[in-house]
Write a structure and sequence with these properties.
Helix content is 14%, strand content 49%. It has one domain: Porin. The chain is elongated. The chain contains one helix and eight strands; from the N terminus they run H-E-E-E-E-E-E-E-E. It is mainly β and 201 residues long.
């Protein structure tokens, strides 16, 4: 049984995650990176194509992106093709993307398959020795709605850690969340984690 102390601690944790953490991240971002070199593209490359392959980690909130302890692997597999161009965002290296995503739901997730297209923006606040850490956000339109999210419009939020393999090739580990921001009553969300391979040219 939860005590009053446990409940207060949980409330404090929730408030910190909701308010303090985003403000802290926003404050340190300008200190961590420079847009003079974009680690997601390499030297003088203006385009890239990526293939993302991810496994479903169950429905749930946005915080599943940063809390692997909540991952519950589900019978859903996601593949996403992405075309990107370099840009800057508040002087940080970034990229703008066009995405085509297909989620395959099977077994207990039958009926949760969807095809979606969207645009997104990724920014890298930290890079060092060929590694980089970033996050992204963008709207997507799906071809269906389902028992997880009862709308065709969803928003994708992504966190990723990348490594430059060569001037043209990169590999990224990512976590990805789709939901509609509680625009509808049913908004359980989709979560995925997986790997991406990126070729720049």
């Amino acid at each position: 049984m939860l005590t009053l102390f446990d409940t207060d601690c949980q409330l404090l944790y929730n408030r910190c995650m909701k308010y303090f953490l985003p403000c802290f991240i926003a404050a340190i971002i300008p200190l961590c990176a420079s847009a003079s070199y974009n680690p997601m593209f390499g030297d003088n490359h203006k385009n890239s194509v990526s293939v993302h392959l991810g496994q479903g980690t169950g429905p749930g909130s946005l915080f599943k992106l940063v809390n692997p302890g909540q991952w519950d692997f589900m019978p859903q597999t996601m593949i996403m093709a992405q075309y990107s161009q370099p840009m800057t965002l508040f002087r940080l290296p970034a990229r703008q993307n066009f995405n085509v995503v297909q989620n395959f739901g099977y077994n207990s997730s039958r009926g949760l398959s969807f095809l979606g297209v969207g645009i997104s923006w990724d920014v890298v606040p930290f890079s060092w020795c060929g590694f980089y850490i970033g996050g992204g956000l963008g709207p997507y339109m799906r071809d269906s709605h389902d028992r997880y999210v009862s709308s065709r419009l969803v928003f994708g939020e992504k966190l990723f850690i990348g490594k430059n393999i060569s001037d043209k090739w990169r590999a990224e580990f990512f976590t990805l969340h789709f939901s509609n921001g509680d625009f509808t009553e049913i908004n359980r969300g989709f979560n995925f984690t997986g790997m991406a391979v990126n070729y720049s040219f």
